[in-house]
Design brief:
By secondary structure, this protein is α+β, with helices and mostly antiparallel strands. The protein has helices at residues 5-12, 28-31; strands spanning 16-23, 40-46. It has one domain (5-46).
């Protein structure tokens, strides 16, 4: 298992002025197939 997006957002938020999470799970073109696990990108603008 990995870190869930809400957990990572909570850990990063105190250090960042802006945090966005983009769900990448539903895009099979990124992975070459359909996936059932949680995949995302977190982008943080640091203070």
């Amino acid at each position: 298992g990995g870190v869930l997006p809400d957990t990572l957002r909570a850990a990063v938020s105190p250090l960042a002025s802006e945090v966005t999470v983009e769900d990448l799970t539903g895009d099979p073109d990124l992975w070459g197939r359909r996936v059932d696990d949680v995949r995302y990108a977190l982008v943080a603008r640091m203070r």
